[in-house]
Amino acid sequence: MSDLRSKTFLADWFRKHMPTREQMARNKYLRPLGQSFLSPELWRFTRRSVPRGVALGLFAAFIVPLGQIFLAALLALPARANVPLAAALTFVTNPFTFPFWLLVANKVGATVLNIDAAVGAGAASEIADDRGALAGFFEMAGLTAFGFVVLAVVGAASGYLIASFIWRNMVIRRRKQRLDAMEGALARPMTEDE
User: Fold this and answer.
1) 146 closest CA partner among 113, 102, 109, 99
2) Rounded CA gap, 129 and 127, in Å?
3) Number of other residues whose CB lies within 10 A of the CB of residue 69
4) Helix 98-113 and helix 133-193, axial crossing angle in degrees, nearest 10
5) Which of 28, 85, 31 minimizes the C-alpha distance to 59?
6) Distance of CA 80 to CAs 7, 48, 75, 76, 160, Å?
7) Residue 69 contacts by C-beta under 8 Å, 6 or more apart in sequence?
8) pLDDT computed for residue 76 by the predictor
9) d(CA 91, CA 136)
10) Which whole-number Å values give the CA distances from 164 to 52, 161, 169, in the listed order?
11) I want to staple 109 with a disulfide (CB 3.0 to 4.6 A). Which of 90, 142, 143, 179 is the partner?
12) Residue 57 and residue 90: Cα distance in Å, rounded?
């Protein structure tokens, strides 16, 4: 495996740390779809599969609290996205970062829904006092759940755009390096002949 080096450090790192196609195909939860995971196009780093994998990984990371890797892998099949990348990006939400994302999701949900502006700040607090602590908890849980949906959609869209932009810039930089090398190679013989 060490003699299989790609053009990027990131692809090498993923190849070293992610499970192989065969390992995922043998997984007891993914076994019914095992042959689908053996398709080589789902494991290549291409300009189309990488942004799709990023988007699906971020979407799965925020939309479900458990089983994110399996959801990302299952979503990657019909979307022809990069499976290892989709699975890896689900670790954005992990047990260490989850409390942070809970707070962010609650703030995002409260900001997007903006309940205080709709009914007035005083009215919202009176309604919360009348219903009791349990109703306040469910209201906060609803805001947080809605915030996670917003984070999933916005995160997936942003991830897709950013990954596409980075991929495009990497390709442009490589082409420029190759063109510079070709110009240098062409210029050398001309100067030696003179």
Assistant:
1) 109
2) 5
3) 23
4) 110
5) 85
6) 22, 9, 9, 6, 14
7) 60, 87, 90
8) 86
9) 30
10) 9, 5, 9
11) 143
12) 5
CA distance 98 to 54: 19
In the numeric block, the tokens 């993914």 are attached to: 30
The pair of structure tokens assigned to 27 is 């997984």
* H-type alpha helices, the chain: 9-17, 21-26, 34-37, 49-63, 68-79, 83-89, 98-113, 115-119, 121-131, 133-193
User: pLDDT tens, position by position, for the chain (194 residues)?
Assistant: 444 555 667 667 767 777 676 776 677 776 666 666 667 777 778 888 899 999 999 999 998 877 888 888 888 888 888 888 888 899 888 888 888 998 999 899 888 887 655 555 555 555 555 566 656 666 777 888 889 999 999 999 999 999 999 989 988 998 998 888 888 888 776 655 55
What's the sign of the alpha-carbon dihedral 16, 19, 20, 23?
positive
The pTM assigned to this predicted structure is 0.70
Structure tokens at 63: 């939309």
